[in-house]
Amino acid sequence: YALLAIFLLILSVQLVRAASEYDPYKVLGVSRSASQAEIKRAYKNLAKEWHPDKNKDPKAEDMFIKVSKSYEILSNEERRSNFDNYGQMDENQPFGQSQHHGFRGFQNSFYFDESFFQFPRSRDFADSKYLLHHAQFNSDVLPDSHKRPYLIKVTSEWCFACIHIEPVWKETVQELEPLGVGIGIVDLGYERRLANQLGAHRAPSIIGLVNGRVTFFHQAVVREHLRQFIEDLLPQKLVEKITDNNYLAFLDSWHVENKPSVLLFDQVPIVPLLFKLTAFAFRDYVRFGYVDQGDTHNTRLLRQFNINTYAPTMLLFKEDTEKPVDIIQARGMKRQIMDEFVSNNKFLQVPRLVNQQLFDELCPVKQFHRRRKYCVLLITGEDQAFLPGSKAFLDFASVNRKDVLRFAYVYQRQQQPLCQALLHNQAALSPQVVILERRSHGGKVMYRSVSGGWNGSEEDKYRLHEQLELLQKDPTYLSSDATLPELNNEMAPIFIIQWMNAAYDYILQIYDDLLYSNWREMMPILSLIFSALFILFGTVIIQAFSEPGESKPRKPKPKEQQQTEEDASSRASTSSRPPKKDFVEVTELTDITYISNLVKLRPGHINVVLVLTNTSKNALLRKFAKEVFSFSGTQTLHFSFLNADKHRHWMPSLLRSTSDSMQSEGHSDVDEESPDYTGHVLALNGHKKYFCLFRPVFTGDDPNDSSSSSHSRSRSHSREDGVGPKRGSSRATSIEVHHKLDRLGLWMERLMEGTLPRLQVPAWPSLGETTSSSTET
Description:
Blueprint lengths: L1 H20 L2 H5 L7 H15 L9 H15 L2 H10 L24 E3 L2 E3 L6 H4 L5 H11 L5 E6 L4 H17 L5 E6 L4 H7 L6 E6 L2 E4 L6 H11 L5 E3 L5 H6 L1 H4 L3 E6 L6 H9 L5 E6 L6 H6 L8 E5 L8 E4 L5 H9 L12 H7 L11 E7 L6 H13 L5 E7 L4 H7 L9 E7 L5 E6 L8 H16 L6 E4 L11 H21 L3 H27 L16 E4 L17 E6 L2 H9 L6 E7 L4 H12 L8 E7 L6 H7 L3 H4 L17 E5 L4 E5 L35 H10 L4 H10 L5 E2 L17
Parallel strand pairs: 3-4, 7-9, 8-9, 12-13, 18-20, 19-20
Antiparallel strand pairs: 1-2, 3-5, 5-6, 8-10, 10-11, 12-14, 14-15, 15-16, 17-18, 19-21, 21-22, 22-23
Pfam families: DnaJ, Thioredoxin
Organism: Sander lucioperca (Pike-perch)
Membrane topology: Single-pass type IV membrane protein
């Protein structure tokens, strides 16, 4: 035991000494107070000196890794501070736990952990070119993921499981990288910020990145699974299966899609991954179709284009659907060859300008005198009548193809701002041809319109050819200048489609996180969802178990007033404010209340007065309260009633004192004693001394019947003049009195709108007799 203890002590001393010998400042040859510029300069010099491709020394690779690792530590202020204060170089190591604390901090030796012994491994130099940093990822990799998919491995220097998947990873990289798949490696210890952005919190992890969307790989790490994982990340309809039945429609779609078409012929029934990756890279420019040469439904297609069945063949079509403009055929089709083949033919001979990006690529801004690019633009229409002229323009462009010329066309209706800038706001009745040269990215162009328009005749072709020849001899031939607006994006998807696609991706991400228990990323979303559900159901439960307020019985008040409970649904929509009470307070006009409720009524307030008799009092008050209930919430309205039996002379005195406008309506000769004013309603403005008059209307029909004339002024058939009704007619009298106020609700609406005629009075007449009563209904 003594010998074993001595051995372990000596071994620990050696390990501590070995760990303390590593100093990134010494490796880079800089002082501890060196600035970032000095550290960067030292790193560049040492990297050039010890790069394994330039230095054949056997120790060059190890020294290059040390230099790179030292620069990674010192270039990051946080890591540099940790090393200066604690001697630690790994972000996973807790602050304050230095390399001398037991065996945990040894970067270049072993330590005791869950797996007892784990031996550190130096990073393979072949992997160093795939290392990703946070800034590089956001500036280069993210935008590039819209052109090719990325396969990213998250690893760590102390990850034992990462060693097991290393052989499979290398085989997969060797297979997929030549096909065009981007490869990346993220060190969990040194790039914690990037790992958090990706949502990777453990090593090893494998991530797929397409169109900026991160997807985790959750299957067994096998080469076939990783290959299928990349293929599943690509959009579904990149390549269309082509047969004898649909190849004509596919090739003719250039009219609508405004893109060339590529057909790949091969013997395998499944679309090769290489072809899918090429289609993904050029999906904005070219449409791709795949033809299975072994399918019996493709014999006519193979015969028409004379396809060799012994090697893969690619045909590229533009406006001519019967003859391809370019062909390649090779047994070992390489990605570089396919990219060059497609990129040289990614525009139609005469494409339609459908967005600003296409305009920028087709007609670039002039940079140098020797690289002038002239754009010959046809402004035409979409109708069938313009097709011959467009076809003649295409024929002219096919014959006069040159590097300095780009031919294109626009639909005037689709690109009105552009056409107005070139045609001086004049609508083109016939197609026009404009030759232009772009001078700046701000839209400035020099241009010249071809005189005579364009109808496709030989004379038009000769005139255009002559002007193009003059332009190449004298660039100043373009004499006009203009500033073009940005083109409308004709191919932009509708907003609802964009929203649905974004929602679909979001749902897929949530499903993936839930399925594979990525709870750290899901916690904010789950917290939001459960909070919303708690608030929603909590509100419902509180409302469900709360007791509705019961109206308490009210005692009759001693003063003279009328209280009537009503159904609030009668005319609630016509009220300017909802009623605050479930009854209407109606006060009787007497000698005591007459002064305060009329003569000295506050400015802006109106008293609505119902005229009734002793016999019609109950029926009319109930109907009156029902009709005016929805208006009782208005603060400036007051409701009263006047008993004509007690104050018989008040109404005739009021009408007699009105202006001549009342006389024109034929009321001047009305007997003061005989007329029946039961059911009349007056809106009295005591301050401004005017009133609006409602005359009762009775038809004997349903009050909602459209046949009831609103301008009828027939007298009531029930006159309360002291003469008792005949025997058996009491029921009819009650119904007639009730219907006198059928139109009062409409009259009240007009009163609130201010459209009723106003009758002025010089002074309010006195009531005369003094009698008071109070009624509650």
